[in-house]
Amino acid sequence: MRIYIVRHGETNANKEGYLQGWSNGPLNENGRLLAEITGRGMKGIRFDHCISSPLRRAKETAEIILGESDNSVSVSTDDRLKEINFGSAERMNIRDENVVRFLKNPVFDFRFPDGESIADVMERTQDFLKELIAKEDGKTYLVSTHGCALRSMLNFLYEDPEDYWHGHVPYNCCVNIIDVKDGAAELIADDKIYYDRELAVDWYK
Q1: What is the pLDDT of residues 19-70, one digit of tens each?
Q2: How far apart (Å, rounded) are the C-alpha atoms in residues 5 and 21?
Q3: Which of these, 39, 68, 107, 108, has the minimum number of CB atoms within 10 Å of its CB?
C-alpha cells in the first residue's frame, strides 16, 4: 500500500503573506502551474483513490494532479484534512509578532481565539492517516491537504516529533510518500518536489 500526501499549490494568501486557515480561496496562476508540473511528474502512478480536504485550494490541486498524471479517479473529501482553523487570526499578516512566535516556536496546545491548536489538528489528521494505514489494502492513494495539516499528520512518523515544522513549512505541491507493509508505515519520500528547486518558496521565513 502506498500513500502520496501533497500540499496544495500556491495561493494569493501565500504570495501576499497572510494566514488563510479555513478561508476558501482558489489557487493562483503559479499555484495551478506547480500542480500541473507535479501531475506531469507523477505520470505512470496509478491512483486507486483520491481524498482531499474540502477547501478549494486543496481539491483544485488534487484535480489538476490527477488530470495531468492521466488518472481518472474521482476526488472525495474528508473534513479531517482541512487546514488549522486560525480563528480570529484568519487573514492576519504572517509578520505579526504573534504569528511569528507561533511559526518559530509552535506550542502544541496554544490556540488563537476561536481557533484550533496544533494538538487539535494532530488529533484529527492522524486519526485520518492511521485509519487509512489500518486498511492496508494494497492500493495507491493520493491525499491533498495543507501545510500545517500535513506536518500535523506526519508528526508521529518524523525522527524528531518535537521539531514540529520539520525544518520548514512544507513547500507548495511538495509530495510525501508513505509505504505500508505488515501494519507498519514508513515515510520513504519527504517533501519531494517535481518542479525546479529554485521555485520552492518557504513563505514563512
Answers
A1: 999 999 999 999 999 999 999 999 999 999 999 999 999 999 999 999 999 9
A2: 18
A3: 107
Cβ atoms of 119 and 148 within 8 Å: the answer is: no
Q: Which residue has the cell 496544533?
A: 118
**What is the pTM for the complete model shown?**
0.96
- Each residue of 151-190: b (16+ CB within 10 Å) or e? bbbbbeeeeeeeebbbeebbbbbbbbbbebeeeebeeeee
Cell of 38: 507535479
Q: State the residue range of the domain holding 33.
A: 2-199
Active site residues: 8, 83
Residue with cell 499549490: 9
Number of domains in the chain: 1
Question: What are 124's three cell numbers?
Answer: 484529527
CATH number, domain containing residue 46: 3.40.50.1240
